[in-house]
Amino acid sequence: MSRGSVPPLQQVIDDISRSWLKIAGVAGLGVGENEGTPCVKVFFCDERSLRAAPIPDQVGGYPVVKEVGGEFFADS
After folding, report:
1. Angle in degrees, CA 58, 63, 65, rounded to 5
2. Which of 43, 45, 38 is nearest to 66 (CA)?
3. What is the pLDDT at residue 69?
4. Which of 44, 51, 67, 73 is the most buried if burial means most Cβ atoms within 10 Å?
5. Can you list the alpha helix ranges (DSSP code H) found in 1-76?
6. pLDDT for 1-44, tens place per residue?
7. Single pTM value for the model
8. How far apart are CA 21 and CA 25, in angstroms?
9. Are strands 26-34 and 37-44 parallel, antiparallel or unpaired?
10. What is the model's pLDDT at position 1?
11. How far is CA 9 from CA 35, 41, 66, 72, in A?
């Protein structure tokens, strides 16, 4: 698949992360792959948050894959 004028995936994630991480139940974002295609991975705290969040199925020319991953905590 030609990416043409599509921006690099990490740039897309950097552009959306601040606003998407403010959405209730969104635990994290990352670079992923879905069936061989680069994608934006969005991790949710729980199934309810996943269903309720206003996250699109595509952003910046990349598919968005949503999954429940629980909360993330930094190692200390």
Report:
1. 105
2. 43
3. 82
4. 44
5. 9-20, 47-52
6. 455 677 899 999 999 999 999 999 999 999 999 999 999 999 99
7. 0.83
8. 8
9. antiparallel
10. 46
11. 16, 11, 16, 22
User: Residue 52 in contact with residue 26, Cβ under 8 Å?
Assistant: no
Q: Buried b / exposed e across 7-23, counting CB within 10 Å, b at 16+?
A: eebeebbeebeeebeee
Length of the chain measured in residues: 76
What contacts 24, CB < 8 A, 6 or more positions away?
A: 49, 52, 53
**E strand spans, 2-70:** 26-34, 37-44, 58-59, 62-68
Give the sheet arrangement for strand 37-44, strand by strand.
26-34, 37-44, 62-68, 58-59
CA 48 – CA 55 distance, rounded (Å): 13
